[in-house]
Specification:
alpha/beta, seven-stranded parallel sheet, 40% helix
Length: 428
Amino acid sequence: MGLKVLIITYYWPPAGGPGVQRWLKFVKYLPDFNIEPIVYCPENPNYPIVDDSLISQIPKDITILKQPISEPYGLANVFSKKSSKKISSGVIPKAKKQSFLEKLMLYVRGNYFIPDARKNWIKPSVKFLSEYIKENHIETVITTGPPHSLHLIGLHLKEKLNIKWLADFRDPWTTIGYHKDLKLTKSSQEKHNALESAVLNKADQILVTSFNTQKEFSTKTNQPITVITNGYDSHSVRVEGKDESFTFSHIGSLLSERNPKVLWEVFSELVAENKEFSKLFQLNLIGVVSDDVVESIHNYGLKNHLNIVGYVSHNEAIKFQMQSQILSLIEIDSEDTKAIIPGKLFEYMISETPILAIGPEESDIQKIIASTNTGNYYSYNQKEELKLQVLNYFDAYQNNSLEVNAIGLQPYSRKALTKKLADLIASM
């Protein structure tokens, strides 16, 4: 094997959710390009979502290093296990619905655990990895966040050993949607800004998942910034066919702020106006769903059409993608979310199921869907256009002509993306 690369990640199987997929797949394919990945992850993490099925996807000949981590969520569970799990999952209730305990937990999380609740892992990791890097002659380290505290491990290793360091941002740091919900004091916000600046300006290479994040970071650093999106991988999941009902399925978290009331309103009107639509329509929500979202759906009279499945394994999620008539992708209507490209988008794209996406204008999601001809994208102020598109989908469903003619998907395959990463690593 050629070049050794140390990958520092918090999310690793059996962690579930989208955060684990990116580097699990990179690790799978890096050896094909003469790079030996060595993974460093927590020994005893407090994962809010667990998916044991992902363990089987770990390459058998990969070196995995683990060290204990101390996290505050275990202590928080003593006071409220439900609230602690919600917050660690990213489910933050609207301010007016937050309990006193939830407000307190958010304040403590935001101001005493900077940049995040995994900060206590930084010092012991730097100590352990410093010796390992020297003993094993490793020249390149990759950190991936969030949690962004892992980038601080890379920062200290860079300063201490002068290794080559690539910082991978799966999401932005100070502009990510939930950041403003953490009840930060002015001094805490300044600390976040300073730490973000240090990482962006001292890493040898910045890696991001979207062009909008690249644009944002380019105003904060002169270091090279490369976009490598998430992608899709081959799988062996098979289904017998599409659902008999007209199923709209959303796969992934629907948090309080990601609540597309315009879509619920469209569904409500079509249920009232079209008897066949009312008879055949079903809304599937697969993943973590906030109480606010469920309440909104009920308020629009859609309770009898709602099927809350909850979290499922990755393979089960793929089955829903393939069986559903339409796949829904929702992003918060905010300037901050233009840069967010959910990992599920790329699996959606190969599911042979039309995508109906709603989000802010000029988002990276919109560009990808348009360039691959995999669905339709609407902003929140396009209610009538959205309603017409749902009706067009329904008519095609009734005529057995609902299909997708995707183009240009190959560059988003995990192996093609890993080739791009390998070339980047080799050039550092």
